[in-house]
Amino acid sequence: MDVFAFRQRLIADYERFSRSFSRIRADDIAQFLDAAYHAEQFWPAPLVQLNPNFVPGSTIEDLVDARLLHEECRKIFRTDKTPQNLGKAMRLHKHQEEAIRVAQQGESYVLTTGTGSGKSLAYFIPIIHDVLRRRRQGDPCKGISAIVIYPMNALCNSQLDELDRIGICIFCL
């Protein structure tokens, strides 16, 4: 599939759709709108990105050994887990590790980075650590421990699938 040809077809369809709502009779306004459509002012230019290599950070095991994460995180956050195999230690990206360190200091943070860079783990790891820490200290952790808000159901479902892939049941913590 030629994504640029697809984009052009999509834009042409959108232009026909958006122009179908009204008929401009004034020549000067029609020319102005034609020029705006021709200049593609009503949609963004194509965005082409490559997935960058993110700077590697510590493993979850390193953070557990440094007492930044609860011991149970060593078992929870692993890659290539199966019911028969514990998998391998999960290596974080540097920005994930830094976010976890900020969270451990009780600070708020905003993490902005590209798609597929592990933003969700940078939020979920501190949440799960906190639930485990409070449980160890005798706090029964009843009720709501965190609220995660997503702008779209698709993103929410995607993240729920990702947590399930890692083996985390958010309702079981």
Assembly state here?
single chain
**SS-based class:** mainly alpha
How much strand?
Answer: 5-15%
- Structural domain count: 2
Largest sheet, order of strands side by side?
1-4
Helix content: 40-55%
Rg from alpha-carbon coordinates: 24 Å
**Order of helices and strands, N to C?**
HHEHHEEEHHH
Summarize model confidence as the mean pLDDT: 84
Account of the 3D structure:
It contains seven helices and four strands, in the order ααβααβββααα. A hairpin with an 8-residue loop joins strand 2 and strand 3. The chain has a two-stranded antiparallel sheet with strand order 1-4. The protein has a two-stranded antiparallel sheet with strand order 2-3. The longest helix has 18 residues. It folds into two domains: 36 residues; 87 residues, no CATH class.
Kindly summarize this structure in a few lines.
The protein has 173 residues and is mainly alpha-helical. It has helices at residues 3-19, 27-38, 60-65, 73-76, 94-104, 119-136, 153-166; strands at 56-59, 78-79, 88-89, 91-93.
Draw up the topology in text:
Blueprint: H1 3-19, H2 27-38, E1 56-59, H3 60-65, H4 73-76, E2 78-79, E3 88-89, E4 91-93, H5 94-104, H6 119-136, H7 153-166
Antiparallel strand pairs: 1-4, 2-3
Helix pairs in contact: 5-6
